[in-house]
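Workshop exercise sheet. Pairs work together: one partner reads the sequence aloud, the other fills in the structure field after running the prediction. Swap roles for the next sheet.
Pair: D.N. / O.F.
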Amino acid sequence: MQDPKNYGETMKSKGGLSRLVNALKYTWDGLKAAAQFEEAFKQELMVVIPLSIAAWFIPVSAVERALLFSVLQLILIVELINSAIEANTDHISLDRHPLAKRAKDMGSAAVFLTILIATVTWAAVLWQNFRG
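Structure field:
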């Protein structure tokens, strides 16, 4: 078993190209884990992927296109953070605790607000460009 005092130090990056390669591997591992184990992430992917593709074909300005695409990716980013909060909370303890509930509820609220932002953004851009 590894000495717990030195564990954190052994996990620290040493820099250089290997740091970038490791960071990309960790990123890929995180995305795979979310797609495999997180039902909310899977559901959001089913909406975000087609809409992200559609955003490139909607006849709007480049800035509006970037906005449409970005707010969708923001949903996934916040969901990843929420899932990390939930996993870490469950790792610490599966016991019911008011602080654990608060942490999970706030993560859920962050996802909801992000979806609201994306919905309002898409509605505003589409309304601005396609109202009769």
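Discussion prompt: The chain has a mean pLDDT of 93. What would you look at next?
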